[in-house]
Amino acid sequence: MVTDSRQAMNSGTTMTPTYCRLCEPYCGLLAEKDAAGELVRLHPNRDHPVSRGFACNKGVSFHYANKDPRRLALSPAPRERQA
Prior knowledge:
Layout: H1 5-10, E1 14-19, E2 28-33, E3 39-44, H2 57-60, H3 63-66
């Protein structure tokens, strides 16, 4: 498990601070992204002033929702010609 920015850079990934929006505490997270910018994993952020490294399983596992094949893929819909 990558726990800090230096380890992330050595493994070819980057860590971006963010927060969980699923419930009221807004726990601090670190988003681990690969070289292509795709989300790989979410980690609790120990430097977050409120959550101090705590994040529930819902927040840490939410990266799976981003890659779920049942997820609605939003893209611009083509306009229909009006008569």
